[in-house]
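WARN retry 2 of 3 for item q-0093 after timeout on previous attempt; input resubmitted unchanged.
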Amino acid sequence: MLALHNQQGHPRLGMAISRKSVRRAVKRNLIKRQLRESFRQHQAIIGHFDIVVMARPGVDSLSRQELREQIDECWQKIAKKCVPS
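OK item q-0093 returned
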């Protein structure tokens, strides 16, 4: 995940889930749905940032629970690193 401060007043999400990293469209769509839902639930802690999520090869081998846990960990890391000073 990459994060950059924005002037919009709310967080925004971008996704780069390529066919090269996740071959099956069903799995790509599942990952995107999980990301969107998790993003909605964590908007309050994220702050005013533009966030781009890039999938790495092998992410399609994770179970739904493992995927969700890793996404949630990333939101926590971003929230800690992007605290306004």
